[in-house]
Design brief:
The complex is a heterodimer of chains A (about 140) and B (about 130). Chain A starts with 5 loop residues before the first strand and ends with a strand. Chain A has five helices and five strands. Chain A is globular and about 50 Å long. With about 140 residues, chain A is an alpha/beta fold. In chain A, strand 3, helix 4 and strand 4 form a beta-alpha-beta unit. Helix content of chain B is about 30%, strand content about 20%. In chain B, helix 2 packs parallel to helix 3. With about 130 residues, chain B is α/β, with parallel strands linked by helices. Chain B has a five-stranded parallel sheet. Chain B has a two-stranded antiparallel sheet with strand order 3-4. Chain B has a single domain, classed as 3-Layer(aba) Sandwich (Hypothetical Protein Ychn, Chain: A). Classes of the chains: A alpha/beta (about 140), B alpha/beta (about 130). Chains A and B meet through helix 5 of A and helix 2 and strand 7 of B.
Chain lengths: ~140, ~130
């Protein structure tokens, strides 16, 4: 395994709007599987990614009920990434920007997500091996 | 202390409901948290330097906005906190914005100068 690094990601996109969110989570998942520690600062719409009240729905167009359709929910992806990190001996730290949480009313997040400020992004950038900003467009 | 160049290219994203440009805002907050930052405006974001811009207050029914975004003023405040603000000359020219229309204190940079600007910072964050 390569030397363990600490990587920081800053995300801005909400779930379900474009491929950047999925791509970001795939990068994070890959980093965790390779044993690296990962920090995620969720800014603006990205605080919705680990929102615990996301729920699946049916797809009548395709003729599936909710349990059959198994609609992807990014909150579940976040939880799985965190579970895998625990098994792999990696650390995943997810901070939602607090003011962004407040204005969206998205106070409920999956376990392992905590609330913070832009100062946390500064601290992480100063202590990480690298930082990647994935902005919304 | 590591230096960070925040390149802002996407413009007027949610500036009505946020009453801010969200990256100008977080730059301000990160400066307050001790970061050493510069800002480069490119693409449509060069318009942020145009002096005197003010979004009209929006209203829906009885709801009236009271603090519409004033991004040129926010940049002036940012420079006042010691954050240098640069703007791409070529992107101003493409948009027909003359240097006389810009807020005081902003520094212009061209494509050649951009390389030096990037080399003079430890981190490049593109928003």
């Amino acid at each position: 395994m390569s030397e363990k690094k600490t990587l920081t990601f800053c995300l801005m996109d909400p779930p379900f709007e474009n491929a950047r969110t999925t791509t970001a989570l795939r990068l994070i998942d890959t980093a965790v599987r390779r044993g690296h520690n990962v920090n995620i600062f969720a800014y603006e719409g990205a605080v919705g990614v680990p929102f615990s009240k996301q729920s699946a729905h049916a797809n009548k167009v395709h003729g599936f009920e909710a349990d059959e359709w198994n609609h992807p929910l990014p909150k579940d992806w976040v939880s799985e990434i965190m579970k895998h990190a625990e098994k792999a001996g990696s650390k995943v730290d997810w901070i939602n920007c607090g003011l962004c949480v407040d204005e969206r009313g998205m106070n409920e997040a999956v376990p392992g997500v905590r609330r913070g400020t832009p100062g946390d992004l500064v601290n992480w950038a100063n202590t990480s091996d690298n930082t990647l900003i994935i902005p919304t467009k | 202390m590591a230096t960070t160049l925040n390149i802002i290219e996407s413009a007027y994203r949610a500036t009505i409901e946020e009453q801010d440009d969200t990256i100008v805002w977080i730059t301000h907050a990160m400066k307050g948290a001790g970061a050493e930052l510069s800002v480069l405006l490119r693409g449509n974001a060069v318009n942020y330097c145009v002096t005197g811009q003010k979004a009209p207050e929006i209203s829906f029914g009885a709801w009236q906005q009271t603090h519409a975004a004033q991004i040129d003023q926010d940049l002036i405040a940012l420079m006042g906190k010691g954050v240098p603000v640069y703007v791409m000359e070529e992107d101003l020219a493409k948009r027909g914005i003359s240097l006389s229309e810009l807020i005081s204190g902003v520094k212009t940079v061209n494509r050649e100068g951009l390389l030096d600007l990037i080399e003079n910072h430890d981190r490049i964050w593109h928003w």
